[in-house]
């Protein structure tokens, strides 16, 4: 009797070991697949350098929220470069961090973001006249708040393919400000440049394919418009804009975007996206669906 019991216990223990090994084998490919997907996303960030708009990524065409409806939250980073002009070209560069809150269902979604960004305009203070010197060339300011609102709609052709449209707009609540001084024809001066009312709006169309491991690949065109007002506290000959203040607008109004959305498990997803209009843009975000 004791021998039979010992054999049964041994067989049960061996069965549990085999089951655990089989489960580990099944999980292994899924884990490796997700790691490969994350590595691909990270590579995309390293390859694409630059940016296009203050509002940040557009995200996948399909809503992040669950099909039955619900909230989602997220945090992200966006690096952008854009070209504005009004007789003279101004290149803007910025680093933005943001948090996102949205609500949606299978075919639609609404979302809002609050972000903080710096702003650099290389050669903004470069003089166009030999008689005017400046203490510095680049405009720089840090961490101003912005808000973004967006909406998207999505239609599935099949379980793997779909198409979506979106509308997204952003506005900076504060002015970016920097000071410069120098000499104009031998007379010292000091003035302050403000970048006011910086805003943008984007509308686009995206195609999406769902591939193994739940990854979503997407690509599409978009239209983009942005403007801001440059204003010097005192006009100085040789500094742009020559009139002391002027509206500047983005140089290129049409661009393209592409990205990948990777499931991380337990409701978390990684989104990496690149955009191209006048210049390239790139960023990443982590979202969680409730």
Q: What is this structure, in a nutshell?
A:
This protein is an alpha+beta fold. The protein has one helix and 13 strands. It folds into two domains: 1-47; 49-289, Lipocalin (Beta Barrel), CATH 2.40.128.
* Total DSSP E strands: 13
Enumerate how many helices there are, as a single number. 1
Q: What characteristic shape results from the CA principal axes? A: elongated
CATH architecture of the largest domain: Beta Barrel
Query: How much helicity do the residues have?
Result: 10-25%
Rounded to an integer in angstroms, the radius of gyration calculated over CA atoms is 26 Å
What would CATH call the class of the largest domain?
Answer: Mainly Beta
Strand content: over 45%
> On the 0-100 scale, what is the average pLDDT?
86
CATH topology of the largest domain: Lipocalin
Cα distance spanning the termini: 55 Å
